[in-house]
User: Fold this.
Amino acid sequence: MINEFRRARRRKAADTILVTDAMTERVVGHIGNLSESGMLLIANESLVDDALYQLQFTLPDEQGKGEAIEVGAHLLWMDRASAPGQAWIGLRFIAVPPRHMARLQKWIEAPGGQYE
Assistant:
């Protein structure tokens, strides 16, 4: 049995949260789960292993309004998903502006979340 230990709590995305490549302005997939240090991206676009990306996504707040978050991320691993044309991608955040990090932390800790 493999025991997996992560430092950051990962919240599952209950709704579809689209992720956009900030450089190409193309939607590359949606969030599977999200932590302060990274995310599981369910990708519908091909990405390059071990590459750096500038990504954007919108997190809903308590009033249902969205706030855009931008992160610099390093692609750590990829695995084919069971759906054709999709891949599971693990990304580690390497740059998050302080205001966006505060919003991210608030969303992760908000009541009603499911965690992995």
